[in-house]
Amino acid sequence: MSAVILFTAVSLSQMLLACAMAIASIRMFRGPRAQDRIIGLDTLYINAMLLLVTFGIGTGRVIYFEAALVIGMIGFVATVALAKFLMRGEVIE
Question: pLDDT digits over 39-87, tens only?
């Protein structure tokens, strides 16, 4: 019984995260300002990270959790670099 509930919950969350990624990618490509595009990119990498976590929960493999950690770190650095670029016009001083 609990395996059925886990499979249903993981499948539903994967479908909802895929929909959220589609909406975030629309915001990233159609955003009227650069700030909207950066927020869309930030949301997209967070949703991708969560999708990998749900794949890891569903399959029981550790590699998905490690990939999610790497995506989280790279996405955070990219968001900080893009925000700094928008504020100052350059990333490296």
Answer: 999 999 999 999 999 999 999 999 999 999 999 999 999 999 998 888 8
DSSP 8-state code for residue 89:
S
pTM above 0.90, yes or no: no
Tell me the three-class secondary structure of 14-38, residue by residue. HHHHHHHHHHHHHHHHHCCCHHHHH
Domains of the chain are: 2-88 (1.10.287)
